[in-house]
UniProtKB/TrEMBL annotation:
Residues 1-117 form the RCK N-terminal domain. It comes from Amycolatopsis samaneae. This is Trk system potassium uptake protein TrkA. Residues 137-218 form the RCK C-terminal domain. Keywords: Ion transport, NAD, Potassium, Potassium transport, Transport. The keyword NAD applies. The keyword Manganese does not apply.
Length: 218
């Protein structure tokens, strides 16, 4: 993929390095001259300019990108970048960083955001996930579809132990996408048995989350 990242601070550079390691093409757009440091991520293409300006985005060829990541430390700038990328340049996937959780409600498809990543929320979710065995934990929201990535860890005394995946009667708008078992990532098949300690990852809409709990016996 070709990925454009608005904001070449510590977060933007870290994302760029990870994507380059995964063999993606990366372009970093940075408006502050003191943070324009191409030597820090040499494999990336660097553009000095304000990603909130249409002319800069045009010059950078952002319409050729598969993904745009708005990763600045300013929520207003991230919203503007997201909106321009989606509405002016028809970028297929827009991911935006949320710096202030109070602004999270703005990061929707109305502003061109497909996925909003709130570091405080994700950290809280990770803590909750680590201590909440047997309860459903929301890890991420996919704004374009209004679906969530949710997780439930089966406790040692789970009544589902030994039961096949096909025996779980999930609601219509929910899907079991992955089972994490130790260091294994399992793509669930209907005949796969469940075990205590399994981490079940679902994609589901918010309104069916109570039904998922019921289907799992919680």
């Amino acid at each position: 993929m070709r990925v454009a990242i608005a904001g070449a601070g510590a977060v933007g550079r870290s994302i760029a390095a990870e994507l380059i390691d995964a063999r993606h093409q990366v372009m970093l757009i940075e408006r502050q001259a003191d943070q324009f440091e191409p030597h820090t991520v040499e494999q990336a293409d660097w553009v000095l300019g304000d990603a909130c300006e249409v002319s800069i985005l045009e010059e950078s060829g952002i319409e050729q990108c598969d993904v745009v990541i708005a990763a600045t430390g300013d929520d207003k700038a991230n919203l503007v970048v997201s909106l321009l990328a989606k509405t002016e340049f028809a970028v297929r996937r827009v991911v935006a960083r949320v710096n202030n959780p109070a602004n999270e409600w703005l990061f929707t498809d109305a502003w061109g955001v497909d996925v909003a990543v709130s570091t405080p929320r994700m950290l809280a979710a990770m803590v909750e996930e680590a201590v909440s065995v047997g309860d459903l934990v929301r890890l991420m929201t996919f704004r374009q579809s209004q679906a969530n990535l949710v997780e439930l860890t089966l406790p040692e005394e789970t009544p589902l132990a030994g039961k096949a995946v096909s025996e779980i009667s999930l609601p219509r708008d929910a899907a079991l996408v992955t089972i994490l078992r130790g260091d294994r990532v399992i793509v669930p098949q209907p005949e796969d048995p469940l075990e205590p300690g399994d981490e079940l990852l679902f994609v589901a809409t918010s309104d069916v989350e109570p039904e998922i709990r019921s289907a799992l016996g919680y």
